[in-house]
């Protein structure tokens, strides 16, 4: 079943016809009933001409017919049906066969509309390409800023280089798409977030281990108000009955970013964020790739955590997409 294209209204004299515009295939679509209204003929006449178009080999059926779901009034009920629609080639052929001036006017209108959309599409493509380049530059600016951080050691620098390489590769791959924008990658739907009690227990266990090694104080991962509870609640919310963050990658990326940026703890927010991030991936069987390798290693995670911490809040979406792309390489085969 085809996705619904954009609907335009064609008006001629005292009639108005809903026209489906398919920008991808550069054509428009009408049903037989709509053609009958357009040409002021009955549906049986239009159907006869359509059959002749195919029987005489003027056009092929498969590329010129698509089914779209439309709502129809059947008695007292409104029912959604999958109805055959015919493209502009068929419409023009039928128009010539019925010798309708209305068909000529419609062809002229459709040609003009398609030309306008092609021009607009080219303009949007250029704008998206420029936006993409600007977003890549913004990401690189974040990397340059993080590179000068006194907290970055040699191993962290290697992780930062890995992030740059992977982000640049993502950019180059996405440039091959017509949209041009850095977009969310292929992802794995779902993902179960930990409850507040589960997350709290895991953090307490980490805290005890770090204190035992002399690497943390009692302030580590201590809650500031209800920050962690609110954060987990927001990540688990729905919008119009659908998850606001519908994939494992989206949940993981936002979890890492928000714990770092929202500072829900008195101390150790970056380490807590990295721990909750890895714990979430582990609980959802996404920590390892299909080859058994970590989707992100310790050095890369440390550098990524620092990169998020150094980033401007205005670049939030850039960082989220970066994290998701780093996780999504293996999602399609999971």
Automatic annotation (TrEMBL):
Please name the InterPro entries in this protein's record: Fido (IPR003812), Fido-like_dom_sf (IPR036597), Type_II_TA_Toxin (IPR053737), Virulence_RhuM-like (IPR011204)
Task: Provide the Fido domain boundaries.
Answer: 198-325
The record ties this protein, via Pfam families, to: Fic, Virulence_RhuM
The protein's superkingdom reads Bacteria
Record-given protein name = Fic/DOC family protein
Q: Which organism is it from?
A: Chromohalobacter marismortui
């Amino acid at each position: 079943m085809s996705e619904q294209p954009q609907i335009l209204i064609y008006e001629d004299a005292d009639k108005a016809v809903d026209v489906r515009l398919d920008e991808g295939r550069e054509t428009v679509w009408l049903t037989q009933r709509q053609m009958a209204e357009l040409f002021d003929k009955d549906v049986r006449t239009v159907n006869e001409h359509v059959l002749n178009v195919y029987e005489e080999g003027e056009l092929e059926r498969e590329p010129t017919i698509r089914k779209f779901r439309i709502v129809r009034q059947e008695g007292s009920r409104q029912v959604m049906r999958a109805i055959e629609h015919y493209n502009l080639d068929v419409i023009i052929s039928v128009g010539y066969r019925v010798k309708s001036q209305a068909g000529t006017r419609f062809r002229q209108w459709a040609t003009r509309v398609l030309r306008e959309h092609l021009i607009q599409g080219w303009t949007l493509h250029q704008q998206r390409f420029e936006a993409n380049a600007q977003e890549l530059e913004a990401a690189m600016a974040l990397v340059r800023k993080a590179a000068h951080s006194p907290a970055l050691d040699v191993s962290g620098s290697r992780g930062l280089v890995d992030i740059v390489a992977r982000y640049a590769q993502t950019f180059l791959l996405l440039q091959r798409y017509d949209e041009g924008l850095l977009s969310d990658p292929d992802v794995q739907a779902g993902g179960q977030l930990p409850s507040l009690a589960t997350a709290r227990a895991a953090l307490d266990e980490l805290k005890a281990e770090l204190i035992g090694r002399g690497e943390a104080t009692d302030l580590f991962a201590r809650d500031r108000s209800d920050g962690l509870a609110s954060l987990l609640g927001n990540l688990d919310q729905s919008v119009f009955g659908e998850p606001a963050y519908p994939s494992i990658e989206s949940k993981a990326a936002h979890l890492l970013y928000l714990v770092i940026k929202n500072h829900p703890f008195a101390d150790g927010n970056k380490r807590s964020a990295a721990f909750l991030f890895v714990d979430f991936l582990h609980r959802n069987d996404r920590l390892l790739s299909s080859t058994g390798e970590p989707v992100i290693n310790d050095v890369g995670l440390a550098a990524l955590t620092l990169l998020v911490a150094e980033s401007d809040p205005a670049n939030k979406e850039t960082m989220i997409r970066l994290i998701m792309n780093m996780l999504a390489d293996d999602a399609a085969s999971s």
